From TrEMBL:
Iron as UniProt keyword: no
InterPro entries named among the record's database cross-references: NTF2-like_dom_sf, SnoaL-like
Organism (species): Rhodococcus aetherivorans
Residues of the signal peptide: none
EC top class named in words: isomerase
Keyword field contains Plastid: no
Keywords of the record: Isomerase
Protein name listed in UniProt: Nuclear transport factor 2 family protein
Gene Ontology MF term list: steroid Delta-isomerase activity
């Protein structure tokens, strides 16, 4: 239960998810990785080789740099120290526009930093516009 002036852990997690989507839309690889714990893991998409540590995670997200991007949160559920959310990301690069709607599942530490992220999507889910 939230009391006046008190921010719950769930609210901090929600804020981190919103900040994550804003960074995916407008930030650098380092900006996105800064939301992760130092020893976090990332598996995007699920089934690919996991990346461990903030440096490896920043390198993964650097692939987005130089493209125009937009994100939209479609649904978010938070329970305990976990969040699952469905969102849309539109990426424009080289005159091509790609859209995908992954479902990400994240775990968080006590400071609401991301400790793990698993993205559920497949190349067949990608659409060109």
């Amino acid at each position: 239960m939230t009391t006046s002036g008190t921010v719950t852990h769930a609210e901090r997690i929600r804020a981190t998810v919103v900040e994550y989507l804003a960074a995916v839309a407008d930030g650098s690889g380092a900006d996105i990785a800064a939301l992760y714990a130092e020893d976090a893991t990332l598996e995007d998409p699920v089934g690919s080789a996991p990346r461990t540590g903030r440096a490896a995670i920043a390198e993964f997200y650097r692939a987005l740099e130089g493209s125009r991007r937009a994100t939209e949160l479609l649904a978010l559920r938070v329970t305990g120290s976990c969040a699952a959310f469905h969102f849309r990301v539109v990426t424009e690069t080289g005159g091509r526009v790609h859209e995908v709607e992954p479902i990400d599942v994240m775990t968080f530490d006590d400071q609401a930093r991301i400790t793990s992220m698993r993205a559920y999507w497949a190349p067949s889910d990608m659409r060109q516009r």
